[in-house]
Amino acid sequence: MADVKGTTRILKIRLAAIEFGSREKARFLRGEYAYGPCRELGAKIFEYGINLQSSNISVINGSMEYEIVGPLRADIYEQLARIGKIVSHPKRIELLEVLCQSERRVDSLALATGLQVTTVSAHLQAMRQARLVETRREGTSVYYRAAGAEVCEFVKALGDLARARLAEVDQILREIEVGGQSAEQVSRDDLIARVRRGDAVVIDVRPSEEYEAGHIPGALSLPLEHLEARLEEIGTNVEVVAYCRGPLCLLAPQAVAILRRRGMNAQRLEDGMPEWRQAGLAVALGTEPGSM
After folding, report:
1. Do residues 147 and 136 lie in contact, with contact meaning Cβ atoms separated by under 8 Å?
2. Is 244 among the catalytic positions?
């Protein structure tokens, strides 16, 4: 039970037959929540958002009820700032973008982002505390994933805001492409029409595990790192549309640049796989391209 009185939150917790004496109280006020009854009290403190400041906390012993009094966290904006702290680090944004494609183990995320495994683990723990990522265990392996569709929508909205307000974003994309010129961007509707007419070949230049977790029906899996060695799979005299993780993903622009240097007619999809899913369009799974 939690009551708000002015700027103070009073939390009453009932603990059945738990000994909570002076030693436990001292441990609790030092923040040692993993010990004995402190674990349950600590969990409630986190659940209700009480800002622990030991000088303002009292734990009143009772037969089965303990009352914890602490200052209410500033307000809802402090909670919003928890998300802001996560996306203030560029690599955490990149990790979220990758996890919006498919679930990954820590070692796979380290390879995808160029970070050390220990660094990725630290970032993931911070993101998990902010409830942006979740985990599942399979044997001895732990897989991380975005905590929900709203997380990926937030990442997309962050990118849209950056493109709208920061000219440097589009400048970076242009510099990657051939001659500093932006490649033609193909809309989803136009892509579907071209593929159904047989006018275009679609290539997914994300890593293979992301392709297998979900791709545009009919798309060939040609990860960027293998693209030049597998150009013959595309064919000649065809129009190519490349896509990756979203409008700010750099894989598709790099793929377009490679193809254009080889004299091929190449464009990129205006966005990526997360937006395709959010639009409710068909998604193919596994290693086979499927059909549109």
Report:
1. no
2. yes
> CATH assignment of 176-278?
3.40.250.10
238-268 pLDDT, tens digit each: 899 999 999 889 899 999 999 999 999 999 9
| pTM for the predicted model, two decimal places | 0.68
Cα(2)–Cα(47) distance, integer angstroms: 10
* Single-letter amino acid code for the residue at 101: Q
Which one of 38, 100, 152, 244 is the catalytic residue? 244
Q: Which CATH number fits domain 77-151: 1.10.10.60, 3.30.70.100, 1.10.10.10, 3.40.50.1260?
A: 1.10.10.10
Token pair belonging to 128: 């998990």
Strands (E) in the chain, as ranges, are 2-5, 8-14, 59-60, 65-71, 133-138, 141-146, 185-186, 200-204, 220-221, 239-244, 265-272
